[in-house]
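FORM 12-B: Structure-to-Sequence Request
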């Protein structure tokens, strides 16, 4: 069974973590189609793909279509991002299965609105180090594919 996967990572909030995004997306592709594969592209910057600004309405509407189609949402939430928070809120409202990854140690604290959402929802937060991210994804998706 191949899953539809929506990956969330910071774009306009900062592209400092693009290398780990790319690594996570590479791992996710073993479990299904990643709709937002472009998030791991180092050419994507705060102005858009290759510096070309895409209309905000187009991005919003396209991404909501992908979010609705996705079976699972995976969000790297170490870099604070309004967009990622918005996507997660919409995904919770859609009763999507959500895995949030927060890298430790970090200079940031994860928002209580994300960590606190674990209670009674299908959202899970996993603290991780770069060395263990593939193992965490493997374990999470093994459970999803068995369900």
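FORM 12-B RESPONSE
SEQUENCE OUT:
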């Amino acid at each position: 069974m191949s899953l539809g996967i929506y990956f969330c990572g910071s774009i306009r909030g900062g592209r400092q973590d693009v290398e780990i995004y790319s690594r996570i997306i590479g791992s996710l592709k073993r479990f299904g189609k990643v709709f937002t594969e472009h998030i791991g592209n180092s050419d994507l910057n705060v102005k858009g793909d290759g510096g070309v600004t895409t209309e905000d309405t187009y991005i919003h509407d396209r991404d909501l279509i992908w979010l609705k189609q996705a079976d699972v949402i995976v969000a790297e939430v170490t870099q604070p991002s309004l967009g990622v928070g918005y996507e997660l809120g919409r995904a919770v409202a859609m009763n999507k299965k959500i895995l949030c990854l927060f890298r430790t140690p970090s200079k940031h604290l994860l928002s209580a609105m994300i960590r606190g959402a674990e209670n009674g929802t299908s959202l899970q937060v996993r603290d991780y180090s770069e060395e263990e991210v593939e193992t965490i994804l493997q374990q999470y998706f093994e459970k999803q594919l068995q369900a």
